[in-house]
């Protein structure tokens, strides 16, 4: 018997069934609209990734372009002159300009490393010049360092000839251009 009410005694009318079906339709997802939203979300994510990678590439290129060039190899030394009788003469030779420049860079790099190790100069500071200046005190030199925002003067004493030893540089003072003395040894 198809027209009998269900066991609970409740029978739905056609109108109630239509109302129930209409509510289902209102709450069913609009699949094409959701597909469009997901497509837009994926496009925005891809665009953001591309922008992030391009910004990283630009910053990396800017960082690497500020790196100092590699030093040129030292020229080969000329053979010693031969004196009559087949003996060689020892001729004192003044250091070449390139050798002196490399010595200055090594001294300034060691002084900068000492100042950075002690925290007087930021870790991202670089050597500003490939020259050292002598002072009135024997064995005391001055080098310049810089960051994008500041310039520093490093006064140091050279206490040995082997810079690899690590304790050849004794900082005398570190000063910032326009900012005064940051460190002064007593």
Give the rounded overall mean pLDDT: 77
Number of helices: 3
Distance between the termini: 111 Å
Unreliably modeled segments = none
Shape: rod-shaped
Q: Strand fraction band? A: 15-25%
Looking at how many chains there are and whether they match, the oligomeric state comes to single chain
Largest sheet: 6 strands, antiparallel
Task: Specify the structural class.
Answer: alpha+beta
In sequence order, what are the helices and strands, one letter per element? HHHEEEEEE
Counting DSSP E segments of at least 2 residues, the number of strands comes to 6
Helical content (DSSP H or I, runs of 4+): 25-40%
Query: What Rg do the Cα atoms give?
Result: 39 Å
Please supply descriptive tags for the structure shown above.
186 residues, alpha+beta, six-stranded antiparallel sheet, 6 strands, 17% strand, rod-shaped
Could you explain how this protein is built, in words?
With 186 residues, the chain is of the alpha+beta class. Helices cover 38% and strands 17% of the residues. The protein contains three helices and six strands. Strands 1, 2, 3, 4, 5 and 6 form a six-stranded antiparallel beta sheet that branches. The longest helix is centred in the N-terminal third of the chain and has 35 residues, at 31-65. It is rod-shaped and about 115 Å long. The model has no long low-confidence stretch (mean pLDDT 77).
